[in-house]
Amino acid sequence: MAGSTVRVISGNFITARPVGIVDGVDFRHSGLVRKVDVAGIARTLDFGAMVLMSPFGFSPTGEAFNLSMEEVATSVAIALQADKLLFLTEVPGVRVKPLEPESEDNPIDTELPLAAAEQLLAGLPAAQQPTDTAFYLQHCVKACKAGVDRSHIIPFAIDGALLLEVYVHDGIGTMVIDEKLEELREATADDVGASCS
After folding, report:
1. 65 with 21: CB under 8 angstroms?
2. Are residues 86 and 180 in the same domain?
3. In the chain, where does DSSP find H-type helix?
């Protein structure tokens, strides 16, 4: 990396709207993503720079709103039709039995088909904090339903977690995918004959 130039550019790529009043509570300066400036992000990427997305959005009148990091990441991934959405999180992923404690009999489910993830999400209590199973899973499901190929929940506490998730076959966290990566089938006599000839 000696002598290299790494450009990181940020900007007002997010248009936001206020959350407003919900159940009698005024959320004041908290907002939701209204629109993502896909053309502006694409031009910045074409320039060879990394784009730093801020958890702030601005209304068309210039009012600033606080946004959740998860919503910004999901909205940008959907708008760009990204191949992957990765969350580096406090949790190691989604367990096979998500409502039961960690154990050898309850490992991380490394690959969740979208239909199974939706079914699981429907049976979980509403997410209140980042350590709740549904917290990141809801964003993964939303992204995959909107065309993002894969969404990942990866633990930040493990050194090299991102590399392990991307380059090791089973990964280290949970990946939500619209279809299974591999479908195994029984070998047939034709397969055996073809491999011998």
Report:
1. no
2. yes
3. 38-46, 69-80, 114-123, 133-145, 161-167, 189-196
Note the pTM of the prediction, 2 decimals.
0.83
**How many residues are there in the chain?**
197
Residue 175: closest CA among 131, 140, 127, 139? 140
* Structural domain for 29, as ranges: 1-68
* Full pLDDT tens readout for the chain, 197 residues: 677 788 999 988 999 999 988 888 888 899 999 999 999 999 999 999 999 999 999 998 889 999 999 999 999 999 999 999 999 999 999 999 988 888 888 899 999 999 999 999 999 998 989 999 999 999 999 999 999 999 999 999 999 999 999 898 888 999 999 874 445 556 666 655 555 54
Domain end, chosen from 34, 68, 102, is at: 68
